[in-house]
Amino acid sequence: MFEETFSQAWRLRYGDGPPVEVPELAPLLRHRSVRKFSDRPVPEETMQGLIAAAQSAATSSNLQLYSIVSVQEPERRENIAKLCADQDQIRDAAWFFAFLVDHCRLRTAAEGAGQDPGGLDYTEFYTMAVVDAALAAERMVCAAEFLGMGICYIGALRNDPEAIKELLKLPDGVFGVFGLCIGYPAEDSEAEIRPRLRQHAIWFREEYNADAETEEYDERMRSFYVSEGVKGAVTWSMRSGRRVDGFHMTGRETQKEWLEGQGFNRR
Ligand SMILES: Cc1cc2nc3c(=O)[nH]c(=O)nc-3n(C[C@H](O)[C@H](O)[C@H](O)COP(=O)(O)O)c2cc1C
């Protein structure tokens, strides 16, 4: 249902045209988060294909330090939605997945093989697991979008990790790092391609450039927010700055202690 060409999608991302047409990349450039889903089902067999895509992602040292829990039972889905800032897309998507940082499986496997998995409490293995989970998820996302579905990541899964642990019966060493809604978009989903920073602001040559300007992006985002019905002349810097002011942490301000209590990041 989203049908922008490569060139149209590029223009919506960057505000100007591409240097060259690469039509094959259009499906990737068309991504937008979908927050309104239709009730069209996504069969289990299709989902198995998407999981295979996720598992085909590269994974550090083949450790596969992530797991996925799908939540389809309506009551449990409702509970997840409530724990995740009451977001309706969690209720409505054909599928909801909790992506998990998972040290438990490797700990058990290592112990079974007579190894000491004590090193798992290094921050390195937490970082590795987060990267693994994200790579797997994004591959699943690309596959779903390629098949005409829409997605919405749910960072709010981290708002109350203890309640999520209880609800999904997560053992120690497992952390719900983000959620993912997948389904067919509603006809009136109104999901639009969201502008991004121009490439020179994020792609530096040889050395980092701390002077890369974001003013031009602020202006494009100001117009985009207006088109979305956001009141006031808000820019990306203003809105994103508020997100990181430390006063809008929605429960995640205690994450460090919680993770350490679970055995993550102790050294
Ligand atoms: C890890 C992660 C967590 C996110 N959490 C949420 C969320 O809880 N709720 C939501 O509506 N969107 C969430 N998003 C979607 C972002 O807001 C969205 O990707 C961003 O605004 C860019 O828009 P786009 O995906 O439409 O390009 C999340 C995205 C990521 C990558």
How would you describe this protein?
- The structure is a single chain.
- With 267 residues, this protein is an alpha+beta fold.
- It folds into 3 domains: 1-30, no CATH class; 32-191, NADH Oxidase; 193-252, no CATH class.
- Helix content is 40%, strand content 10%.
- It has 11 helices and 4 strands; from the N terminus they run αααβααβααβαβααα.
- Strands 1-2-4-3 form a 4-stranded antiparallel sheet, with helices on both faces.
- The model has no long low-confidence stretch (mean pLDDT 97).
List the helices and strands and how they pair.
Elements: H1 6-14, H2 26-29, H3 44-55, E1 66-70, H4 74-83, H5 88-92, E2 95-102, H6 104-112, H7 123-146, E3 150-154, H8 161-167, E4 174-183, H9 215-227, H10 236-243, H11 255-261
Antiparallel strand pairs: 1-2, 2-4, 3-4
Helix pairs in contact: 3-7
The protein binds flavin mononucleotide.
The site of flavin mononucleotide has 12 residues, from strand 3.
Low-confidence stretches: none
CATH homologous superfamily title of the largest domain: NADH Oxidase
- Class of the largest domain, according to the CATH hierarchy? Alpha Beta
Strand proportion, as a percent range, falls in: 5-15%
Reading the helices and strands in chain order gives HHHEHHEHHEHEHHH
**CATH fold description of the largest domain:** NADH Oxidase
Known CATH architecture of the largest domain: 3-Layer(aba) Sandwich
Helix content: 40-55%
Shape: globular
How many distinct domains? 3
